[in-house]
Design brief:
This protein is an alpha/beta fold and 363 residues long. It is built from 10 helices and 19 strands. 48% of the residues are buried.
Length: 363
């Protein structure tokens, strides 16, 4: 079947979604909604979208889409996702990351979709990247033994916008097991905002996945925007019988070495398919076969929960136990003493040197 797709928000990330739906061969973007008339009109012209709206609710009622992409700022994700889930025609929703900024909001989104059997996908498309799948397969093969320690670096950007991808990959490589303890330090910086919410300058976290069911414990270190550690989603996975690296600067995409082998084993990568297209195909397949997408509501929840636990740990100056209670006072607002007012543009963020950039890019 050809899925009828509606996209809400036509900024930068919406282009990834539109191209992915087009490349999937199984969907057509029939409508878009955005309150910015100029941006919406340009998007319509570029992709030949038949119908456009200022009000996404009117669009949902008028167009009866099968699938909805939510491509707006994070604070708007919950309201739009829950509204889309209540639309009779909707069978799948692809919400950009972070899923939301609070635990109760994420719970509401996941519950709304589950109650109607809607496949909820989250924009952690790197799970579908060829090199990431290669690492996951190497781990699952058992050739390197159980994962024991993971060191992950996101050398630029902030936790909610960039390092959240790194954290999601750590979870993916650990079979999405529940992190139980987080100890973190976070430099709040001097008041930078990105996508409406405050962002930190730099941070580091130590975390533990405890032993369970005979599977050994895993120790985790995550570094975010640390100018001393280079790499973007650079992850080292130490296993019982070897080590696997992904995205090491100056090296092949994946380097794997068994402790008992005579030499290193390099995993060559051919041309990598676009992960956004693969993520869309996975969502559409999940709709057709009534299953959870690879990147789903709960995996998206865990990535945000890890970050909120970091803020909570930095605020309390102690170890934080997970899963966090939904009654936990909002760690993001409390850590930054944020009044909840939405500020800042897409590119207003700290660089790895601590300087605020206002050019729309992170230096």
């Amino acid at each position: 079947m050809a899925f009828r797709v509606a996209i809400i928000g036509t900024g930068h990330v919406a282009h990834l979604h539109a191209n992915a739906y087009r490349a999937s061969g199984k969907a057509e973007v029939v409508a878009i909604a955005d309150i910015n008339d100029e941006i919406r009109a340009a998007f319509q012209k570029e992709y030949g979208v038949p119908n456009t709206y200022r009000d996404y609710r009117t669009m949902l009622d008028s167009e009866s889409p099968d699938v909805v992409s939510v491509c707006v700022w994070p604070h708007l994700h919950p309201e739009i996702t829950v509204t889309a889930a209540g639309t009779h025609s909707v069978k799948g929703i692809l919400c950009e990351k972070p899923l939301a900024l609070t635990l109760p909001a994420m719970n509401e989104m996941i519950t709304a979709c589950r109650q109607r059997g809607i496949a909820l996908g989250v924009g952690h498309q790197l799970r579908h990247q060829a090199r990431v799948r290669t690492v996951r397969e190497l781990i699952s093969s058992g050739a390197f033994g159980a994962v024991r320690r993971v060191w992950a670096v996101c050398g630029s950007g902030d936790l909610m916008s960039n390092t959240i991808h790194t954290i999601d990959l750590v979870h993916f490589f650990c079979d999405d097991r529940q992190v139980k303890r987080v100890l973190a330090q976070v430099d709040p910086g001097d008041g930078a905002y990105r996508f409406g919410h405050p962002v930190e300058r730099t941070s580091v976290a130590y975390a533990l996945i405890p032993e369970e069911g005979g599977i050994p414990d895993v120790r985790i270190c995550v570094e975010s925007a640390n100018c001393w550690s280079q790499g973007y989603h650079y992850i080292t996975i130490e296993c019982v019988d070897g080590t696997i690296e992904i995205n090491r600067p100056g090296s092949p995409p994946v380097v794997a070495k068994g402790w008992r082998s005579s030499g290193g084993e390099l995993k060559e990568m051919g041309e990598e398919p676009d992960p956004s297209t693969l993520a869309v195909r996975d969502l559409l397949d999940a709709v057709e076969h009534h299953r959870e997408p690879v990147s789903n509501g709960m995996t998206g929840y865990k990535a945000v929960e890890f970050i909120l636990a970091m803020y909570q740990s930095a605020l309390k100056r102690s170890i934080v136990e997970l899963p966090l209670s939904v009654d936990t006072p909002d760690p993001l607002r409390h850590f930054f003493n944020w009044d909840g007012v939405i500020r800042g543009g897409r590119g207003t963020a700290f660089s790895t040197t601590g300087a605020v950039t206002t050019t729309g890019k992170i230096s």
